[in-house]
Amino acid sequence: MHIKQVIIEGFKSYKDQTIAEPFSNKINTVVGANGSGKSNFFHAVRFVLNDIFSGLRAGDRQKLLHEGAGHAVLSAYVEIVFDNSDNRFPVDREEVRLRRTIGLKKDEYYLDKKHITKTEVVNLLETAGFSRANPYYVVQQGKIMAMTTMKDHERLDLLKEIGGTKVYEERREESLKVMKETEGRRKRIEEVVAQLEERLAELDEEREELAKYRQVDKERRSLEYTIYDKDLHETRTNLDKLESERQQEAEEAARVHNEMQEAHTRLKRLDKDLKQLTTHQASLKRKWEEVGEEKAEAIKTYVKVDLDVKDQEDLAETDAKTQAQCQKDLKGLSKQIESKQAELEKAQVELQHQQKTEAAVQKRIGEAERRIQSLHGKQGKKWTSKKERDDSLNAEVQQLQETLSKQQDYTQTLQTEVAQLSSACMDKSQEIGNQQAAIKQRKDNLTRCDREQNELHERRNSLQNEKKELWSQEDSVRRQTDELRGELLQKERRLENAIARDINRGLQAVKQVTRTHNIQGVHGVLLELLSCKSNLHTAVEVTGGNQLFHIVVDNDTVATKIVEVLTRDKMGRATFLPLNRINPSDVNYPEHHGSDAVPMLKLLKFSSKFAPAMKQVFGRTMVCKDVDVANKVAHRDNLDGVTMEGTQVSKKGVFKGGFHDLSRSRLDLMKAIKELHEQVEKANDGAEKREAQAMQVENDLNAILTEMQRLEPKQHYLKEGIAQLESDLASLTQQESSLRKQLEQKETRLQTVEANIQELKQSVQEHQAELHTELHNHLSAVERQELADLTPRLKQLQEEVVRVGGQRMEEEARVTELQDVLNTNLLKRCHELTHRLEQADVEADRQRLESRRKEAQAAEAAVKELSERERRLEGELEEATKQVRDLKEEADNLKDTETSEAQHVQDEQKALETLMSKRSALQGKRTELERKIKDLGSLPSEAFEKWRDHSLQELHKLLQKANSQLKKFSHVNKKALDQYTNFTEQREELARRQTENGRGEDKIKQLIQTLDMRKDEAIERTFKQVAKNFREIFQELAPGGRGELVMQKRLRPDPQDEPEAEEEEEAGPSDRPDAMERYAGVKVKVSFGSGETMAMKQLSGGQKTLVALALIFAIQRCDPAPFYLFDEIDAALDPQYRTTVAKMLAKQANDPRNPAQFIITTFHPQIIHETDKVYGVSHQNRISRIEVVTKEDALDFLQSEENRQKTNE
């Protein structure tokens, strides 16, 4: 083992952390200027290893701290790193770090960063070979100087210290002190024995009278014993009786408490049911009112629809009557029209016949007139020549042809107009057919639209009812959700009030931090993660306590994050249970209790993920049947026991119990909160579902309304279109009639023109035929006859034409009249009737009536359904009201029961207290009687049976008599016999102790002799070893020289002086510790070369230093250490001896059997040449630093220091 490294910070001149490079396990030399901090370096090592810096005051500690410019150093430490490859330290590590830290108020040791005490440090160093009896592994300059000036007896003391004789001296001092105390006790015993002898002589005279007194007193004590025993028996009997009564009262109290608890549980359940029923009652009342309102609306709707049905029925009846009347009128009118049309056709035929007859007559009249004119012209004209006649005829023919040409042109115009009119009539007829088809199509479309409108109306009503129902359900669910949320908020507030304010603040802060920073891995408080039966809530709560509000997290990283935020924002405090850090040990639960004691973990329900946290809190607790079982579990099985009522028995002996308010159960509140959360979520889901359904129905309803709105303008358009088409049809019909009239007129005119054309053609032919005939100026007989015949015939024809014209005019008037009747009356009336018949659409009215009846039926059904719902809700409301009333009565009864039970419990408690008071009084009486019996002392055997059959009255009389007899012995020393016996026993005990003291004194003297002998042996053994080592080492250090250590013995005292010596010893052997010493001192004799032997006073300074070093090395060889610290041990040596010292150190460092490490400071080069590693200490700004330097740099530094000193000298 050796020092591997030294780390210093804040110690003396080493302000900054100074880490020395690893030391060599052989010779290490430290060089530096005076005042640079070399000695402070050695002080730092001694600060850790030596106890010279123990018991420091605040001022002493301040001196060890660095003092300089800059901020003040408040603490310092020195740490030494040891190479422990040889396991010299009993630590299973190859490197051991020992640190000592000091401040103004602290002084602490650390071993491998673990705090240890100073005693443990001392024991550790002694185990490694650093003996407190041989502190010469650290040698400073002053120690060598002290060695050179030591006196002989001081060297002897040094050998004693090295040989460990201090132990013997301490034990010898203790033995002498014990001897002195023993002598004092012996003298006190002798004095007490003398006093006892005198007192025993006095007591011997009082014994006879005392014997009589004792006989009477014995009888008295027997009587008292019997009386006390009877009272004690009676008291015990009463106690047993009281215990039985107390047990019964306790059982009755437990029964009443259970009944009260059951009543409280039932009352709590009833409160919950009552709250639910009240809510249900309010909901039913609200629904009943809503149904009433809906019913009123439905009745209004039904009344309105019923009125519409009646109106529609009236309209349908009116339309039916109108249709029937119109049909009847149309039927009669049709017959009239047919009759009139037949008459018109007949009249038209007759008119045509009359026209034809008139035309024929007119034609015949024209022929006759033309013939008569021709004959008259022939008869009356007087043409002079044929040419004149022909010219005249040609002129007439030309005029006739011009007229004929005009008539032919007009005929063509009339034919064109007739053709146009015929075409126009055909077109109008086609238009009328198309218009009628369009009207029919539009009526069909209107019927279809009406049917679709009715269907949409029915669907709209159905969807509106469905929407109302969904809204009602949603509103009910929303109200229920609000009520549940209010109850949930109330429960959460009650839970918050049941938790300590700081715990609640911390939990709220953790929830906020988790939500704000989105921290995953937080599962909630322990209370939220478990569940159990209701009868276990009290046991679980009292077991968990505030641990129920510890927050379970996945790992300590999550907890650290939350704690950092809580600390930074000053939000509160919380306790966490990281699942990765909790590893509770498994518990072997006892099975011999059976079902009387069950592990609490087996009664809890929780996720296996949280098992470590549950084991941590509830793992060592068992739920017990009663307190007795809990006591057994705690004392025998080393587990905690808890009863269902919450009474705890800890394995440490702590007993907790008492009343537990079930109304403030946190587990009940958490269970209720969980259930309310589930109900709220379920209600929200139901409300959202109904809202979605209502939205869907609303969308469907909007689509239907949109479709109805789309159909309304279409119906209006169709109705307007039908009216317009009917108006156009009437106009077309009127136009057709007008065209047909015009056509008839044109045809009649065409016929007249065509007849005129025929007449003109015939006149032209006649004139042309007459052109080439002979000119006759007179008529022939035939012609005259013909003229004579034509005149009456013309008159006849004229009369006939007048007659035929009159008939024609009559027929024309009749035809006109019939046409007027048909067109302006019958046909118009027929058209009006047809229009009214069309307007009186019975089928449409039937469909509309059917639709209205369906609406009325739906409204009536809705009214009936709402009435039924109202009746049902009213019944349910009455039933709920009855149940609420019954529950209130039951709750009141339970409250009365609970109050009476509580009063009963109080009465039972008072009874128990009374019984306990009586029990305490009886127990006190029993204790007093037992004490009195005990105070009676030993009794004769007949005392237990002699007075057993006597009554208490007789015993008290006998006792009174005995007391009267005892009064006669009032002057007697009642304690004489006891005192005599006591004093005798004391005398014998003192004699025994006197004998033991004599034996003890002999043993102490023997022990002192043994200690003196062992001390002398240790001194001789140590002296021989040190003397031998001193001779060998001195020869090595001073070749050719010789050194010896001589033990000086104390001279024996003169026999004549023995009495004086004895007097001195009697005065106090501890005052003369050297009275038995055999040795007086150790003398040093040395010789250098061939010179004479000299004492220390005769040596020079360098020789004294060499002798001191030889003695130190000799002591070190007696008890080798693993390393040595030398502070300028060669300062006073002569140069030749510095070399021998350096070589001897090198030899010791390289010794294969017992190598040692040396750390040396020097100002001379001899040790530098033998060293393995050199360190230079520098000092700047009052701060020291240490670093490795080369031998050459070290030698140069020493040379420069030597030159500087010479210059200064």
Helix content: 55-70%
Alpha carbon gyration radius? 75 Å
Strand order of the largest sheet: 2-1-4-5-6-7
Q: Roughly what is the average pLDDT, rounded to an integer?
A: 78
Largest sheet: 6 strands, antiparallel
Strand content: 5-15%
In terms of topology, how is this protein built?
Blueprint: E1 2-9, E2 18-19, E3 27-32, H1 38-49, H2 58-64, E4 75-83, E5 95-103, E6 107-111, E7 114-116, H3 118-127, E8 138-139, H4 141-148, H5 152-163, H6 166-204, H7 207-380, H8 386-497, H9 501-517, E9 522-525, H10 537-544, E10 551-553, H11 556-569, E11 576-578, E12 597-599, H12 600-603, H13 611-618, E13 621-624, H14 627-636, E14 640-643, E15 648-649, E16 655-656, H15 666-771, H16 781-839, H17 842-935, H18 952-967, H19 976-1037, E17 1042-1049, H20 1058-1067, E18 1079-1087, H21 1101-1118, E19 1123-1127, H22 1135-1149, E20 1157-1161, H23 1165-1170, E21 1173-1180, E22 1183-1189, H24 1191-1208
Parallel strand pairs: 3-20, 3-21, 8-19, 10-11, 13-14, 19-20
Antiparallel strand pairs: 1-2, 1-4, 4-5, 5-6, 6-7, 9-10, 12-13, 14-15, 15-16, 17-18, 21-22
Task: Give structural notes.
The chain is an alpha/beta fold. Helices cover 69% and strands 9% of the residues. The protein has 24 helices and 22 strands. The strands form five sheets. The chain has a six-stranded antiparallel beta sheet with strand order 2-1-4-5-6-7. A six-stranded mixed beta sheet has the order 8-19-20-3-21-22. A five-stranded mixed beta sheet has the order 12-13-14-15-16, with helices on both faces. Strand 15 and strand 16 (655-656) form a beta hairpin. The radius of gyration is 75 Å and the shape is elongated. The two termini are 44 Å apart. Mean pLDDT is 78; it is low at 1054-1075.
